[in-house]
Design brief:
alpha/beta; three-stranded mixed β-sheet; 11 strands; globular
Length: 315
């Protein structure tokens, strides 16, 4: 494993050296005639519920630098965001699409769910008494399909690997071919909230339960960017006791954080992006602006590092 990481970084160094070296014997000086090689970028988008809206800021950096990932992998919210970006949508287009279904700043998602209020978000995550979960995600998946304009992995502009978890065997399952949206729906199926998804003979739940930041699925890339949006939670008071739902969701986050920590001991991505998103709950999608504000320093750091690595002057 260490040898693989070394070889990838050695390859990246050679590519960067070639990119920065003067072109000998070339009569072309314009950007259009440049044959500069770029490293193959792998983008791993992690789980984290509403905090995963910060993945948009990574897309913004790539769009600004005119960089196109060679491959994307994603788990849970990372699979949702990754599917839209892999379909060819820009960061601004994804922002506009998701902004149209998030709710007003003073509305709490779970409170709205319990009271059955007719909010915009509940058009996409419908209350239901189906066995296995308290909400259905079918309408939201249909929204994603319509927004992306694709139905299969083969139709994507960027190759994508979606991580889900087999409920019975407790192992990671990776999808990269066939129907796209059942795989995404399985990857986002938070246990207890969404019903498990039956797909290709398996009963599947949230991919973040087994691989919260799947950067190990990008082995054919030269420069791997991993985005961890698990964030930070702190007590509101010295003796705060969390609600039952908050306790369940934060327990998932504790488990995923532990999995990622152990994984990082064995293998490291080339760039690890960890937005310092504090006290945003899993379902706080209405805090779109707050998430972006907290994630801005990590976004700026990523842009600066990519510019340095690729020899791009600051704009």
């Amino acid at each position: 494993m260490n040898e693989k990481v070394w070889n990838r970084r050695e390859t990246l160094a050679l590519l960067l050296a070639a990119a920065l070296a003067p072109v000998v014997g070339s009569g072309s000086t314009g950007n259009g005639g440049s044959s500069r090689d770029e490293p193959r970028i792998g983008l791993a988008l992690g789980s984290g519920g509403a905090r995963g809206l910060a993945h948009l800021q990574v897309f913004e950096v790539l769009d600004a630098l005119e960089l196109r990932p060679h491959r994307i992998s994603g788990a849970s919210i990372g699979a949702i965001m990754g599917s839209l970006y892999a379909a060819g949508l820009s960061a601004s287009e994804i922002h506009d699409a998701l902004d149209s279904v998030t709710k007003a700043r003073d509305e709490g998602w779970f409170e709205a769910l319990l009271s059955r209020e007719l909010t915009r978000w509940l058009r996409f995550i419908e209350p239901g008494a189906a066995r296995g979960g308290v909400a259905r995600s079918d309408a939201f998946i249909e929204f994603l399909k319509e927004t992306a304009g694709v139905s299969t992995f083969d139709e994507l502009e960027i190759p994508l690997r979606v991580v889900a978890t087999d409920f019975w065997s407790r192992e990671m399952v990776v999808f990269d071919s066939g129907d796209l949206w059942p795989a995404v729906q399985a990857s986002m199926a938070v246990p207890g909230l969404f019903k498990p998804v039956e797909h290709q003979g398996r009963l599947l739940v949230d991919g973040g339960l087994t691989n919260p930041v799947p950067f190990d699925l990008l082995e054919d890339c030269d420069l791997i960017i991993a985005v961890d949006v698990l964030g930070i939670r702190t007590p509101e008071g010295a003796e705060e006791v969390p609600s039952s739902m908050d306790s369940i969701f934060n327990t998932f986050q504790i488990m995923q954080s532990s999995i990622l920590a152990e994984k990082l001991k064995r293998q490291q991505p080339d760039i690890l992006v960890q937005p310092d998103i504090k006290d945003v709950r899993v379902l706080d999608f209405y805090r779109f602006e707050d998430i972006f504000e907290q994630g801005r320093p990590a976004r700026d750091e990523l842009e600066a590092e990519l510019r340095e690595r690729l020899g791009r002057p600051a704009g």
